[in-house]
Amino acid sequence: MKIKKVLVSQPKPASEKSPYYDIANKYGVKIDFHPFIKVVSVPVQEFRQQKISILDHTAVIFTSRHSIDHFFTLCEELRITVPDTMKYFCNSEAIALYIQKYVQYRKRKIFFGTTGKFEGLLPFIIKNKKEKFIIPVSDVHNSEIKNHLDKHSIGLTEAVMYRTVSNEFDKDEAFDYDMLIFFSPSGVTSLKENFPNFEQKNVCIGTFGSSTAQAVKDAGLRLDLEAPTVKAPSMTAALEEFIKGNNK
């Protein structure tokens, strides 16, 4: 089937130099952007039910920008002033730099790994194992990081500060796409919630990541494109290869 219109379940790229626009221009394809999911903070009252005192901790572990946003937003809503002595441990430098949206970066003790994965950050945490760590997490999360720290006898409080919910579509919005691209299992769930009568038929579905691919299969849908691959390490590279093969 020829691909003419694609829905990418991510926010619209901030830069016009995005590879998605290059694909659209090169192959005459219309690409729309609309996240199927959004992340929202848990209400203050719900957080209080966890009986967690943020100020009882001396260090925060951040694994994403989302976690930073919701940590500082919640602190503001709780009227908590985060002390200057608080230490921050981040999975990557990009996440660490994002902290300056809320605090003066140079005046804080901030650590980050070089690999972008928690394993690269772990040595810094072990060196500071006397700190009292807290990590903002989603309502649906695994405890992989907590398990890592338990092995080193390092205490960690998991604080649910945000959740992923379906991002509703306009009821009058035309849903006439030839291809849908998903990046998380939650996005696939949202498709079913927004369009309970959705029938795939000739609509192609592409995914990024093994868990998202499995979610498509579990939902009884046909998976047409799975990324990343050796030949196509990015979603855009995989999408271009797919469109090129179908639009001959």
Principal-axis shape: elongated
CATH class of the largest domain, named Alpha Beta
- Quick one: how many beta strands? 11
Beginning-to-end CA distance, first to last residue: 10 Å
Number of individual domains: 2
DSSP strand content = 15-25%
What is the CA-based Rg, rounded?
21 Å
How confident is the prediction overall: mean pLDDT?
92
Structural class: alpha/beta
Largest beta-sheet characterization: 6 strands, mixed
Biggest β-sheet: strands ordered side by side in the sheet: 3-8-7-4-5-6
CATH architecture group name of the largest domain:
3-Layer(aba) Sandwich
- Low-confidence spans: pLDDT under 50, at least 5 residues? none
CATH topology (level 3) name of the largest domain: Rossmann fold
Give an overview of the whole structure.
By secondary structure, the protein is α/β, with parallel strands linked by helices. It has 2 domains: 5-36 and 174-246, 3-Layer(aba) Sandwich (Rossmann fold), CATH 3.40.50; 40-164, 3-Layer(aba) Sandwich (Rossmann fold), CATH 3.40.50.10090. The chain contains 9 helices and 11 strands. The chain has a 6-stranded mixed beta sheet, with helices on both faces. A 5-stranded parallel beta sheet has the order 2-1-9-10-11, sandwiched between helices.
Provide a quick synopsis of the model.
With 248 residues, the protein is of the alpha/beta class. It has helices at residues 19-27, 44-48, 65-77, 93-98, 118-127, 144-151, 185-194, 210-218, 235-246; strands spanning 5-8, 30-33, 37-41, 59-62, 87-90, 109-112, 133-138, 156-166, 179-182, 204-208, 225-227. The protein is built from 9 helices and 11 strands.
